[in-house]
Write a structure and sequence with these properties.
With 776 residues, this protein is of the alpha+beta class. It contains 22 helices and 23 strands. The chain has a domain of 190 residues. Strand 20 and strand 21 form a beta hairpin. The chain is globular and about 95 Å long.
Length: 776
């Protein structure tokens, strides 16, 4: 070893230590004292792409992999395994498991020297590797084919760090490719050369694993686990844990927490928003205090040396993106026990703009005699939403899933997606004063008690079961992601972005707000310095304000009640929503296809103008088939499609057909379609002359429904009896329309008959694009 060769810290007992590299060509030298020691490999990004669509954010944590260093002769191998397959037991059982699932050698290198009981290796090639598969990520999202450019990539040795529980090895990676994707082209400095900063992080797993807490599907926890084939023949091979931080007391069972859960907030968040994030994040302190451990948790501002990418810090990171995007709370866990080793929260700054735009659209403050008070209400709306968002994302990082049924609770959970609770004052103005309530709900207290409660000297399983029974008895329904979003969702309780747990009442309330806000729409919804083309974007927010409540009401139709649990526990099975409630939902949604609900006020139509020069329509606008100007036909088609898309999902129609076969009180497919057709093609009377372009609006909705029905017929998911029922309804409608004899009706009848005879011979219009409405 020369005098200038970097040396290994002899006092550091860690299995893997970063040596450093002063003046030796940017090499990454590691000293490995112990081989076969379990590590956790995770890749983090310190340089993001800036696209909401692609999710490659600053602060993003990639998927973790179980890893270890092995020595074979004079070479060292870096080996990873699928952490979802682990085998416990005696040495023979462990060997059988390891030999049954192939590992992967990600890197191999020679031992450069032996020093202080460690083998020194040059791991530069490992660090400068696309370990997070960014090129594959971009290809799968149709952004083009990229390859790592080794000549424009290098290890950032000056930024490498060894911490108490991890080694962080940064690298600058440049990818070259055609860059054909719109998302990349929209944000990249040069779409043919994308440069990221990747942090390869090696976590040392605790030598003494945390005592695992068994996951229960009704607990609200994430549930992480693996398959243990040593359990074959004796029990479930699927092992599931409740993810949670380690909380150990000093001295006695009532002593202070040795290492509290601390989240540090990025100083990049400007005030007063940073204070709102800290305040909302600290709502969880109340739940820990109720458990008798008030010192166990806190959120605080990051200091002047705050490093948002430090793996030893639970960080709340501020992220900028182009477009409407989500915030995220992530936790990295020990696969052996579910212990959370570190957490990272990413808050998207664009959320402030989205919430402010909604408040301004509702209150139209600019130029109003009460402008100051209204602008203050908008600002408080933004801060209140940010407090809730911080609590929500930190909740994920604490190990908790969404609960989209909490609007039916005495107080909603912060783990729900809340829509602003808007009402109308006695003076007929939108009221935002109670938009987002502060603090935790009872479900949030249950989450903390179930994950972090201590049961010394007692039966933990029995105590946890008692907590779940108490929550169920208090009416705390729990419905999470898969059962709340997408075409397969059937549970009527789990719908995000709604104001209230009573879907019909919530829809009626939001429709009143919508009507008031549309009637008051004016240039005052937009700050004076903004180009007038943005008025259309604000109009979209109000015109589709009811979209989430439509989803909630639609969930009653073909809806099914059920709960998460284990075999042997009470309360299993599923129950269809009772028929009368389904009929009320059908009639309510059918009425939304009437011109009276779909028409835009004349004043609003006269207010909107095309985007100014150097500006353009974004995804937040309606599409237009009218050139550069606002296209009312497209707007009406989109609003009608909000209803038809919710109701004509093949999965819903299949459920509805079966429920009707079991219980004739349920509407059935024919009942649903008859109600929709009665509100449109079979409408009994003319549209009120007070409705702007009423006949054109109504016919537009009629055609949206008909084309959607024809497209639904071609869905592979429809069962044959359901498809036959739809065809029968359409055949009957064609005869009725022919007898009416109007030009629109004759055209519709001809289209139906042509489609039923040979679908390929006629054209069914594509469904209109509905501008995105989430996140809010």
């Amino acid at each position: 070893m020369t005098d200038t060769e970097p040396s290994l810290p002899a006092t550091d007992p860690a299995a893997v230590v970063l040596i450093g590299d002063e003046g030796h060509g940017g090499r990454v030298l590691l000293g490995i004292r112990e081989f076969g020691v379990p590590l956790l490999l995770v890749v983090s990004h310190a340089q993001g792409l800036g696209s909401s669509e692609l999710g490659l954010d600053r602060g993003r944590l990639g998927k973790a992999r179980a890893a270890e260093f092995r020595r074979v002769g004079d070479r060292v191998l870096f080996v990873v395994r699928n952490k979802h397959y682990r085998t416990t037991g005696d040495p023979a059982a462990v060997r059988a498991g390891e030999e049954s699932f192939a590992p992967a050698v990600l890197w191999s290198g020679p031992v450069l020297r032996e020093e202080s009981g460690a083998a020194v290796v040059d791991a530069t090639d490992l660090v400068v590797t696309d370990l997070d598969r960014l090129a594959e990520h971009l290809y799968e999202r149709e952004q083009g084919e990229y390859e790592l450019d080794a000549a424009a990539s290098l290890a950032l040795t000056a930024e490498a760090r060894t911490g108490p529980g991890s080694v962080r090895l940064p690298a600058l990676l440049t990818f070259r490719g055609a860059g054909r994707g719109a998302a990349v082209r929209g944000v990249a400095a040069d779409p043919s050369a994308l440069t990221f900063v990747q942090h390869l992080i090696l976590f040392r797993l605790p030598r003494r694993p945390l005592a695992a807490r068994r996951y229960h599907p009704g607990s609200g926890g994430y549930g992480i686990g693996h398959t243990d084939h040593a359990m074959s023949g004796t029990g479930d091979t699927r092992v599931m844990f409740q993810p949670r931080f380690r909380l150990e007391r000093t001295g006695s069972a009532t002593g202070r927490v040795r290492r509290p859960i601390v989240f540090q907030v990025d100083p990049a968040i400007p005030e007063p928003f940073r204070a709102a994030v800290i305040e909302g994040g600290n709502w969880w302190r109340e739940a820990f205090a109720r458990l008798g451990i008030p010192d166990a948790y806190r959120v605080e501002a990051g200091g002047p040396d705050f490093d948002p990418h430090d793996p030893e810090v639970n960080a709340v990171v501020w992220v900028h993106r182009a477009g409407r995007g989500w915030s995220h709370g992530q936790a990295l866990t020990d696969p052996r026990s579910g212990e959370i080793l570190t957490a990272r929260v990413r808050l998207g700054s664009q959320r402030l703009e989205q919430v402010r735009a909604l408040g301004e659209a509702l209150l139209a403050p600019y130029g109003h005699p009460d402008e100051t008070r209204r602008l203050a209400a908008v600002e408080e709306l933004v801060l209140a939403r940010l407090r809730h968002l911080a609590a929500h994302e930190i909740g994920h990082a604490l190990g908790f899933m969404h609960n989209f049924a909490s609007t039916s609770h005495p107080r909603p959970s912060v783990m729900d997606y809340p829509h602003a609770r808007i009402s109308v004052t006695e003076d007929g103005e939108p009221d935002l004063s109670a938009a987002y309530g502060p603090g935790l709900g009872p479900w949030d207290h249950f989450l903390v008690a179930h994950a972090y409660g201590e049961f010394p000297g007692g039966d933990e399983g029995r105590s946890l079961a008692g907590l779940r029974a108490e929550a169920a008895g208090a009416g705390l329904v729990y419905v999470t992601d898969e059962d709340s979003r997408g075409p397969g969702a059937a549970h009527p309780g789990g719908v995000p972005w709604v104001m209230d747990g009573d879907a019909l009442a919530s829809l009626a309330a939001i429709l009143r707000v919508r009507a008031v806000a549309l009637a008051g729409f004016s240039p005052g919804v937009l700050p004076p310095g903004r180009q007038t083309g943005e008025l259309e974007e604000r109009l979209v927010l109000l015109y589709l304000l009811h979209r989430h409540e439509v989803t909630a009401v639609a969930r009653l139709i073909g809806g099914v009640h059920y709960a998460y649990g284990l075999a042997g526990e009470p309360g299993g099975g599923s129950t269809a929503v009772e028929g009368a409630a389904q009929w009320r939902a059908v009639d309510t949604l059918a009425s939304l296809l009437g011109a009276e609900e779909l028409a835009l006020p004349g004043a609003a139509l006269r207010s909107v103008t095309p985007p100014a020069i150097r500006y353009e329509r974004t995804a937040q606008y309606f599409d237009t088939a009218g050139g550069r100007v606002f296209d009312p036909f497209t707007a009406v088609r989109s609003a009608a499609a909000v209803v038809t898309e919710a109701l004509l999902e093949p999965a819903r129609l299949n459920r509805l057909a079966w429920q009707h076969a079991v219980d004739a009180a349920v509407p059935g497919v024919t009942g649903l379609l008859d109600a929709l057709l009665t509100a449109t093609w079979r409408r009994p009377g003319p549209v009120s002359p007070d409705v702007v372009a009423g006949a054109a609006v109504q016919y537009t909705a009629n055609w949206v429904l008909l084309h959607h029905l024809l497209r639904t017929l071609g869905a592979d998911e429809l069962h044959a009896p359901v498809r036959a029922e739809i065809r029968a309804v359409l055949r009957q409608l064609a005869g009725e329309l022919e007898r009416v004899g109007g030009p629109q009706e004759r055209e519709a009848a001809e289209l139906i008959r042509g489609h039923l005879t040979d679908a390929a011979s006629v054209r069914a219009d594509p469904l209109p694009r509905i501008p995105p409405g989430a996140p809010n």
